[in-house]
Amino acid sequence: MGDFKITIENKTGDSGTPGRHVKVMLFQTLPDPLKANSYSTAWKVEDVQYPGSLGPITLPEKVEFFVIDQTADNPRTSGPFNVKLGDEVDVTQTDAASAPNAIKVGSQPKGGIKVNNKAGNAQPLEMALFKNGRKIVSFKDVRPADSVYLDIKPVIYIADIDDIVEGDDFEATTQATRSTKFQLFPGNPRVKIQITELGTRELVFSKAEN
């Protein structure tokens, strides 16, 4: 599977109502409501003007694995490490002053990345996956001897928002409930999403033909 190209078209005024610009958020995974400290991230936040369109936005296949020191005055981000979906990795850190390191120790069948915190100090770490240098999913407060499972499915979520900026983390109880999900297919890497508007001013996101 290669990279996806996503275009968003603003059609809010095409049904006779006044068109308007729409601020949208793209993200690729939902936080797990059953697991503590599971977060998704606003991977892309943009205004889509009317009339107009946004994109194409490149959504890479490749993920980047980073480890973030949470207790530092200026949180330190280490990576990207040579890790891919399907790997199991141990994260080591000799002390709080040292940068974390990640070592592949095996494979696991689920397709995501299993991360074991083997740090030699008590501070919690954040384990995160990025795409194009921007965070997309993470677990925070991962303590020594804990393990987490990070995964990204071939889907994209889109939501209209006005209270979040690109790079903000959120939990399952917030932005996820306001989103529309689109399946991504490797044989059709170009995805076109249309924004239309109902008479109630409610926005609708739908997939359009390329």
Mean pLDDT score, rounded? 87
Kindly name the structural category. mainly beta
Q: What's the total count of β strands?
A: 18
Rg, Cα atoms, Å = 19 Å
Helix content: under 10%
**Low-pLDDT runs:** none
Could you give the order of the helices and strands?
A: EEEEEEEEEEEEEEEEEE
Distance between the termini: 19 Å
Q: What is the helix tally?
A: 0
Beta-strand residue percentage: over 45%
Biggest sheet architecture:
6 strands, antiparallel
From the spread of the alpha carbons, the general shape counts as: elongated
Tally of structural domains: 2
Query: Strand sequence of the main sheet, in spatial order?
Result: 7-6-11-12-3-15
Task: Describe the overall structure.
- This protein has 210 residues and is mainly beta.
- It is 0% helix and 50% strand.
- The strands form four sheets. Strands 7-6-11-12-3-15 form a six-stranded antiparallel β-sheet, with no helix packed on it.
- Strand 17 and strand 18 (203-208) form a beta hairpin.
- The two termini are 19 Å apart.
Topology:
Elements: E1 4-10, E2 22-27, E3 38-41, E4 44-48, E5 52-59, E6 64-69, E7 77-81, E8 87-92, E9 101-107, E10 113-117, E11 125-131, E12 134-142, E13 147-150, E14 155-160, E15 169-170, E16 180-183, E17 190-197, E18 203-208
Parallel strand pairs: 1-17, 8-10
Antiparallel strand pairs: 1-5, 2-4, 2-14, 3-12, 3-15, 6-7, 6-11, 8-9, 10-13, 11-12, 14-16, 17-18
